[in-house]
Amino acid sequence: MNGPTLPDRPALNRRCRLQWEPAQGAHVLLYPEGMVRLNDSAAAILQGCDGASSVAQIVGRLEAQFGATGLRAEVESFMAHAFLHDWIV
């Protein structure tokens, strides 16, 4: 993967809150600078960022959850984006 080095066990930044927003009909990530509406995949990735699970474990759970294989590059790409925006630490 090119880009930032991801934490071994990524966690949602304490300044951020991930929640279901009925008015949006989607999960949203609230942070001091604003809010971002997430698609189902992005929400599932961030839900896995618990500070205890490795990137490989998160990928494995997502592949099982979505009945897919080969998701690692896509998951790492989103995590890199989240890391650069300080959503995960």
What does this structure look like?
- This is Pyrroloquinoline quinone biosynthesis protein D.
- Keywords: PQQ biosynthesis.
- Pfam families: PqqD.
- Pathway: Cofactor biosynthesis; pyrroloquinoline quinone biosynthesis.
- Monomer. Interacts with PqqE.
- The structure is a single chain.
- The chain has 89 residues and is α+β, with helices and mostly antiparallel strands.
- The protein has a single domain (17-84), classed as Coenzyme PQQ synthesis protein D (PqqD) (Arc Repressor Mutant, subunit A, Orthogonal Bundle), CATH 1.10.10.
- It is 38% helix and 17% strand.
- It is built from three helices and three strands, in the order E-E-E-H-H-H.
- The protein has a three-stranded antiparallel sheet, with helices on one face.
- Strand 1 (17-21) and strand 2 form a beta hairpin.
- The protein is globular and about 30 Å long.
- The chain starts with 16 loop residues before the first strand and ends in a 5-residue tail after the last helix.
